[in-house]
Design goal:
It contains 10 helices and 7 strands. With 356 residues, it is of the alpha+beta class. A hairpin with a 3-residue loop joins strand 4 and strand 5. About 3% of the residues have low confidence.
Length: 356
């Protein structure tokens, strides 16, 4: 393979020399014929055969020398502007083909390399996406294998109990509900893991549109109407009108749904969940407040970590991924999120999003 490449390079060099030789010989011959004809007519004297022979030999030497020089310059040009960029690109793609998605093509400098830089940029973006997909796959497998153990164990135990003969109908229904709840938790957990890993490991480009943030907040809150009515939770809202933002509506919907879900989950019957929306010249400010159990300062420093659940008494109602999703989405949208909480008093989440 290497010998074939070397032979091709030699043939290419020989071909380039012949091309330059023919081109230089033609140009110089035409120039000399024109020069000698004009000179003879001007001085009124014809050149002898010896003079023409000496001039032809000198001209031939010059043609060969100039052709060699042109061939050398062309070879150096090709090496700098073609061979070197091609080698960089093929080396990087070979690494990617072998599974090394961290391989990148450095910027290619020099005149006439703009096209190669466009190719390099496309290959680098492809490698970035492939690395994100690979990380998503490995993280998903690792996270799922770790977090599936508990619900699977519970489902297995209740499944075994369901196989008991002469089991009372009441117990059978209780065990069946436990299996159903476990499968629902597994499905929710895998959905959230996929969403979070995709947001973390792939280049997400938000589809920004301009819309009324107050309307979106009200729509998301109304989805939990049955929840707050059943738990007899009081709702307080203070929403400033006509607060328009330019952002990805679907991504922000994830934020509001998770914050509302947490607020209702940790607020006892008879408590209050508050929603407020205000605006400055540069930001829209959303606050979701509850009168739930609250949390300590130590728990507050970990709530945005994956699978972290500070209050284990509500562990069956979630999988510790919601706030990690919220934090990642806010970061993607270049916003800010903060939390204030006190044990036994409640929690307030504050989200700042850039306005139009």
């Amino acid at each position: 393979m290497r010998e074939d490449a070397q032979l091709r390079r030699m043939l290419r060099a020989a071909r380039n020399f012949v091309v330059f030789f023919a081109l230089v010989a033609f140009v110089i011959t035409c120039s000399l014929l024109l020069f000698t004809t004009t000179l003879q007519n001007s001085i009124g004297r014809a050149f002898t055969e010896a003079e023409i022979s000496a001039a032809a030999k000198a001209t031939m030497s010059n043609v060969v020398l100039i052709s060699l020089l042109f061939a050398l310059v062309d070879a150096l040009r090709r090496k700098r502007t073609v061979d070197r960029p091609v080698k960089c690109i093929t080396d990087a793609t070979a690494q990617i083909m072998q599974g090394d998605f961290s391989a990148r093509i450095p910027p290619i400098t020099g005149a006439g390399t703009e096209g190669f830089n466009q190719i390099a940029e496309s290959v680098n973006r492809m490698a970035e996406e492939l690395r994100g997909v690979e990380t998503l796959r490995t993280d998903f497998i690792a996270n799922v294998s770790h977090e599936m153990k508990t619900p699977l164990s519970v489902m297995q135990n209740y499944g075994t109990l369901l196989q008991q003969p002469n089991l009372e109908d009441e117990k059978r229904m209780e065990y069946a509900r436990a299996v159903t709840d476990g499968s629902r938790r597994l499905a929710d957990m895998m959905t959230n893991i996929l969403k979070l890993n995709r947001l973390e490991n792939q280049q997400i480009y938000p589809q920004s549109t301009e819309y009324d943030l107050g309307e979106q907040l009200c729509e998301c809150l109304l989805q939990y109407e049955n929840v707050w009515e059943q738990a007899q939770i009081e709702i307080e809202t203070e929403i400033e009108e006509d607060v328009r933002i330019r952002a990805d509506a679907e991504l922000l919907r994830l934020v509001w749904n998770n914050l509302f879900s947490n607020a209702f989950k940790f607020t006892e019957a008879g408590g209050t969940v508050s929603l407020s929306l205000s605006a400055t010249k540069t930001h829209a400010i959303v606050r979701v407040k509850d009168t739930g159990c609250g949390m300590s300062a130590e728990v507050g420093t970990h709530i945005f970590e994956k699978f972290y659940q500070g209050d284990r008494s509500h562990a069956t109602q979630g999988n510790g991924l919601g706030l990690a999703l919220v934090k990642r989405v806010v970061d993607i949208l270049q916003g800010e999120i903060s939390v204030e909480s006190a044990v036994g008093v409640g929690t307030t989440f504050t989200v700042k999003i850039r306005r139009v």
